Amino acid sequence: MDHILLSILLMMCRLISHGLNGMRKKGGELQYDCNAKNILTSSINMDEFFHVSQCKSTKEMWEVLEVTHERTNDVKRARKHALIQEYELFKMKQEESITNVQKRFTHIVNHLIGLGKEFDKEELNIKVLKCLDRS
Question: Structural domain of residue 108, as residue ranges?
């Protein structure tokens, strides 16, 4: 099964990179393009689907999605600063369960890591312990 998924992924990458025009249009290639389209449309939400539903090829779909989700450095920097502020001001809400605190904290930290911020495990542990409500 892993080999099949890997071959489909490699074919998708090739189709996205070169499009069907850059490749020979054999029946198998067309089948891979259909598979790639199916995988892409299965993994996006309804709003994104409406953006790509009129695309003729996988490459065209990928380019539309790429432009839609492209973030400039200014947007990334602003998002990172907002998340850092949220991290620094993080506190347990009144009547909030430990599970929900952990979910909110993990969500913030994961987004910051995705934007390039690095944390020590000790720093994260101390932050969580400090934010807990004693009651």
Answer: 73-131
Q: Report d(CA 106, CA 82) in Å as an integer.
A: 16
> What single DSSP character describes residue 93?
P
pLDDT tens, 24-75? 455 556 666 777 787 888 888 887 888 888 888 888 888 888 777 766 677 7
- The Cα–Cα gap between 110 and 97 comes to 20
- Let me know whether 9 and 63 are in one domain: yes
Alpha helices in 43-118 (DSSP H): 46-52, 58-69, 73-88, 98-114
What span, in angstroms and rounded, lies between the C-alpha atoms of 98 and 3? 42
**Angle 98-114/73-88 helices, nearest 10 degrees?**
150
